[in-house]
Every structure is written in C-alpha cells, then in structure tokens.
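Quick one: examine the sequence and fold tokens given here and explain what the tokens say about the fold. Here goes:
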Amino acid sequence: MALSQYQRALLFVGLWVILYALLEPGVALLTSTLPLAPGTRLAEAIRFFLYEAPRVVLLLTIVVFGVGIIRSYFSPERTRRILGGKNLLLGNVLASMLGIVTPFCSCSAVPLFIGFVETGIPLGVTFSFLIAAPMINEVAVVLLLGLFGWKTALIYVATGLVIAISAGFVIGRLNVERFVEDWVYTIKGQDVGLENNPSFNDRIQAGFTAVRDIVSKVWPYILVGIAVGAWVHGYVPEDFLSGIMGKSAWWAVPVSVLIGVPLYSNAAGIIPIVHALLEKGASLGTALAFMMAVIGLSLPETIILRRVLKLPLILIFVSVVATGIIIVGYLFNTIY
C-alpha cells in the first residue's frame, strides 16, 4: 500500500531525528577505530570533517524541506503583486523579507528583474529583493545555525536584512533609471511564475522536490567547503590568520570584502571555511564581511544582470552593497 504524502513527511522527519541523534556517538565510534594518534593535526582535521559534513547535510535537508513547503505559498507572480504599489521604504522592507523565502538563483535574475520593472516596482525595491534573496537563503541560515549557533545565525539574518533594505533604499534615491538598458522598458516581460492553488499534498511534495533539487546541487560544495575548513582547522597556524583577519589589522575588513567580491561560491561552500577561519583566530566581523561579499555579490549574478543594467548601475550596486558589508564588519569587530 502506497504511503500518503503526509505519511511520507512523518517518516522523513522521524528518520531525520534518528540519524541526527546517532551522529555524534557514531562519529566518535568511527574515529576511535581509525589508526590516528589523538591530538595530531591529521586526526583533528579528519575528526572535523567526519562530524561536520554529515551534520551540515542533515541540517540542510530538514530546513530545505520546510522552506520548500513555505515557498509553495510565494510564486514570483504573487511576489510581484505584493511589492507593487508600495512606497519606497516599506517596499524595501517587504522586498528584503520576501527575498528570504522566494525562489531565486542567478539564472532567474534577468526575468525577475524584467518582471518587477514591468509591474512598476521601483528599482530600489527590486534591488532590495535581489540582494536579500541570495544572501539570506536557507542554506546560509542553516549552516550558520549548525556551525555557530542561533545567535550568530540571527545576527547574520538581521544584518543581511539591514544591508538589503539600506542598499535598496540608497539606490532608489539616486534616480538611476537611466542606467537600465532601454530595451527593458520597451518589451513585454515574460511571466516568471504561474499562479495556482496547490493542495496540502502538493505543498509537501514541493518540500521533497526542494530537497531533491537543492541538496543534490549543493552537497559537493558542502564537502569541498568542509574539507577546506578541516584543513584550515588542522594545519593553519592561529597566529597567521589572526594577523591577517584579526581585529588589530584595520585594513582586514575592506581587504576581505575586495577578495570576496570576485570569488564565486555559495553558502554551502564558504561557511564551513569561515567556521575554520574563526577557530584559527579570524575576527567575527572580518569573517562575516568576507562571507557576505562572496554570497551577496555573486559574480555570475552580476554578469547576468549586465544584460539589463548599464555598467554605471552595476558599479553603483556593487559599491553600495560592499560599503554596507564593510560597515557591518567593523561594527561586529567593535562589539565582539
């Protein structure tokens, strides 16, 4: 007898709870059987990888499942309707919050941008959405929650929202519509989402689909990122990193952002590395600034957006967001 979607969801959650509960004792048992001298660099690196890799994948799986269900309530077309007709600041706030839960990737940047412009949504509001969506995604939040705890994850979400709202508001006040490619205003943008009324079973299926689509794409980045993090954890001297990314170097935050802007990675790949950097003496503000630059200023997204934005607006977009990230980095280095 085939299981219903509800029964599949209960079974899925139950298996997840069992696996997560067995993770720590299972890794301890496994490492005790390996021919490694306790306390050596190799042993520490292997222990880090064997524990963090499955833990992060498990956390990511359950959160993506939940977010996939939530996303079934927010099609792109509905998102555009919600944001249309709002005043600038309120629109920036709503766009940033919706960016967290709505589907977005670099390949959808252009059709979403066209759809927003066509609907009459101000450019500043559009940019708040485009900044928040990749920067504050479920992958970033779950990895931060699993590796650093809820306080750091909450801080990241809050600061990411502040950057998205502020950057969008500033861009909106600059009156930069002339830097949008002319053809964007003259064509009839294609719809980027279809409205429907899915049933509860359909929404559960959307959660399973999200797990299949997202986890299957990011797990290699997770393994690579945690492998690099394990190497940093086991082999990189603390004095080296604390000197480059510590609080004492005033230039550490802007340099970290400059390094992060041209790099391409997603949260799955970069956050485990940041975790290891922090353990080796990097300051929280500098590490967060580096991570935000890598995730929030994606090079592929910027290149794709060049199809609809002229170079001056691309430069304004990158400069405003990078400035916000640098301010956040200095702020956290002052507080912590």
